[in-house]
Amino acid sequence: MDFFFQILILIMSIVIHEVSHGYAARHLGDRTAEYEGRLTLNPLKHLDPIGSLLVPLFSYILGGFIIGWAKPVPYNPYNLRPGRWSEAIVAGAGPLSNIAIALIFGVLLRGALSGEVGWASPAFIEITSIIVLINIILAVFNLMPVPPLDGSKILFALFPAHFTQFRAFFERYGLVLLIFFVFFIWQLIFPLVVLLFSLIAGVPL
Predict the structure, then answer these.
(1) Is 126 a residue of the active site?
(2) What is the pLDDT of residue 67?
(3) Per-residue pLDDT, 64
(4) Rounded distance, CA 86 to CA 158, Å?
């Protein structure tokens, strides 16, 4: 049952993450996501069989935590308003939405644990804690500079224009790098998630 709730929370958090990409792109002039019906909270429009189901399942079984991703919201970088940071802004909108969710529910969790939210039940505290944790994981995970994660788009925005071959190389082998990162490097990053949870929720994980 705990895994079931975590999957539901993960899916909705990923959906908000992806929709945020689409709205950021639309704000910068590209309406590709809107035309393809991806500016919706309907999870069926965003789920990826591997990233939304298999990876969360295996990460939960092997490590006791859940990570995952959805189908990327499409956008055309050539439609974005000119500027080297346009693509980075679209990429950053997803993790920023997860940080916002974690902060909002972190405030609720602090209120529940302090007794300020009198109607908060143990079930409310548990679900709120899961929401905060999963959204911190999504934000940190997606900010890693590994293609095709959002952090790579932000990193590439820092590079001069003539580094296109460098970018193409890393994007070509992005899936291999991502699998290696998930199963070998992520465990080294996870203490950062624990620290952020403690700072936001006010209690240790």
Answers:
(1) no
(2) 73
(3) 67
(4) 12
Q: Burial-class residue 96 by CB neighbours within 10 Å (0-12, 13-18, 19+).
A: middle
Tell me the C-alpha distance between 202 and 163, whole Å.
Answer: 43
Half-sphere exposure of 103 (CA within 13 A, CB side): 7
Return the number of other C-beta atoms located less than 10 Å from residue 1's C-beta.
5
Name the residue with tokens 């529910």.
Answer: 105
CA nearest to 140, candidates 69, 201, 190: 190
Using CB atoms within 10 Å of the CB of residue 160, give its burial: 0 to 12 exposed, 13 to 18 middle, 19+ buried: exposed
In the chain, where are the structural domains located? 2-201
Low-confidence ranges of the chain (pLDDT < 70): 1, 63-65, 116-120, 161
Q: Exposed, middle or buried by CB within 10 Å (0-12, 13-18, 19+), for 116?
A: exposed
CA gap 101, 114 in Å, rounded: 20
**Which of 18, 34, 87, 171 is the catalytic position?**
18
115 and 38 Cβ atoms separated by less than 8 Å = no
Residue 12 has a pLDDT of 92
Beta carbons of 20 and 96 less than 8 angstroms apart: yes
DSSP string over 91-103: HHHHHHHHHHHHH
pLDDT of residue 192: 95
Record the pTM.
0.88
**Position 4, amino acid:** F
